[in-house]
Amino acid sequence: MKRREFFMTPAIGLVVPGLTQIDQFAFASQPAHEPFQYHPALEKFPQKLHQDFTTYTPGVEYFILGNGDIIAVLQYSPEQKGDRPLTFLGLTLMDAERFARKWSTYLFHPEGGLKHSMVRLVVDGQTHAAGPETFLSVGWKYPDKVPVVSLRWRAGVCEVEEEFFVPHEGGLLFRRVWVENKGTSGCEVGVNLGLVPSFVIFDEIASDPAARTVNARGYAELKLQSTHRAVETSGRYGMEITVGTIAPGEKRVAELVYSIRGDETLLARTPVKEMWRHTVDYWEGKDLLSCDNETLDHMYGVSRTGLKSLVARSGKRDSGFWMYNMEWVRDDVMVALGMLHAGFYDEARTILVKILEKSVGVDGRTIESSRWFGFDYTELDQNGELLYGIWAYLCWTGDEKLAREYWDKIRAVGDFPLQDYFLDRNAGMVHNKREFWERSDGFGVADGFELAYQFWVSIGLEKGAEVAERVGDPSTARRWKKAASEIKEAFTSHPKYGLVEDGHFIKRRTRGGEWQRYFIPPDRKGMPPGSPIGTIEKPQCDPDTATVLPIAYGMVDAKSEVSRRTLAFIEQLWNQRWDFGGYSRYNTDSEPDPPAPWPFGSLFVARAYSEAGDSEKVWRVIRWLDGLHGGKAGSWFERYGPSITPPAPPVSVVGWNWAEMVMLITGHIMGVRPGMDRFVVRPSLIEGVEKMQGRFAVRSHTVELTVTRSADGPQAVVNEEKIALRDGVLSVPYPGKGKKLTIEVRV
Prior knowledge:
This protein is α+β, with helices and mostly antiparallel strands. The chain folds into 4 domains: 1-48, no CATH class; 62-283, Beta-galactosidase, Chain A, domain 5 (Distorted Sandwich); 288-669, Glycosyltransferase, CATH 1.50.10.10; 672-746, Maltose phosphorylase, domain 3, CATH 2.60.420.10. 27% of the residues lie in helices and 23% in strands. It contains 18 helices and 31 strands. The chain is globular. The two termini are 43 Å apart.
């Protein structure tokens, strides 16, 4: 579906593309002292921001690289249809510490979009560029475990491969242009590239022939240079590299480097080969997982690359890349959990510290959309998620220092939802006027009990109690453990307020105990025009994918009747009002946007089905994500459909998707689940996967784990010792400091 084009500002210009020569002359020759006479062609050709400002359009893929200092994005837009298609291939850059919209990134030109960012190859005097006619492929590769974007195209008799990568630190992007002569005779080759930056950010733009660089300064700093010797710069933007004569079958490379924030000084201090070696060491030191299924390996690789790419060195991250420019505690915690499952322990800690220092108030209230809300509209799930995230961090790393250092703030986070304002003593549950997906009483949400809030507060307090015991606060541990048990008992079993109907979980009850099945807005005129919630008489809000969270996280038995019925109920959301797959986040009757599927809501369901042992349903979600636009790059959009009206933000990429995918693969399918005192493996291999291998650095121990499918039944070998599985679960104590665990589990 094509997204509506926003921010299109008509303006009068003196030269209008598409006019005849006579028309152009009429504009140019009009005497300056005479009043300007309107020309009807201006209505047909209004001045517009370049179409590359659009984030979501059919077929578009974004390959994202980042290291905490710089973010680079290669745009690939294969569907070159209509009057204003996006640039087929384009590159742009950002400072990782500054949120941006697409049109405020470093290489977005107001009139040219991203088109000026592409390399031109000169072969025997003829100029060639990557385009639909010369394109061969684009995708990820991982030399020495380092994520690299590979772009291949033809230039006359030559074949070109451009490699894009960032080092493990520093505001640098390397762009290597490999040229191979596929002809039968030698050819002269040169590489041309311009640095045409954003006029919004940079106003001092010039080449420096003496330094052989192109420089841009303004609100930020940006530089283009080359490690090649035969370099010339010309004009305001241009850089030319003489590659020389390439013999038949020979391959040569020209290396270009973009730098921001003055980090080109890193190149002067560290040779490029040494920088690459440090980058290899960084990625080699991270946990790694592989299996005998190419699709699953691709999903894991792009997700762990994505998780790293969008988190700044400070822990700051945009919950909606080029979309929201804001932060949510829930999104940050989910990304931290994904980081833990992918081996990025330092990055996970940085995110949690940033949350505790900047995103939690003294009373324990958490920010969402980068601001505080009144108690009626506070997202109570965030408190539980943060407690769970701190517990998970302690389980994976054994680092008690974080919890001890911030314990006063953590205790406030756990106590916040237990205040009388939120906790209804009759129902035994927390309540407010805002649901999990952020609709409120203006959308018809009655004051009441939301399942997602009960689940997250309960499991957060349960796990937080373990942390409290570890840091020496037994009274808080007892209080939280009791509250967690009571909330869980209430939402699963309370005779009046329990969130179960017809044997399955439901989304919400009112304070009076009624199942709130409909969200009826008090003022329909205030709803987006034409939206389902604004037009359907009784918009249903159930089913809701968040109701599967107790199943996905193991709070309730995935094989139980309530789980089975809940998953069957959720199936209404697959292809609810479209035909290309995916689950909507909730019943689209109550959707303020056009009905569309959501990847991370779909991954909630896939994780629950993994717990239930339903391989077919898990694969259905994985293959759906693999086949979507965004699947090649692994940069999945928040939703696969347009928004209705401005000022709705543009639809773009969210990092939560990567976290859900990594947790599905590592935590569910392979079954890696570190606990506070024991290392637990509970694999659930899906059909089509016979073997998974992984290396994990848990508690400073190296754990080498292999999970294989076997006809001999469940069994395990730990450091050459056979250990029985109980109900398909292996649980072993952590070894002594610095010791290794070698585990083979057969299922």
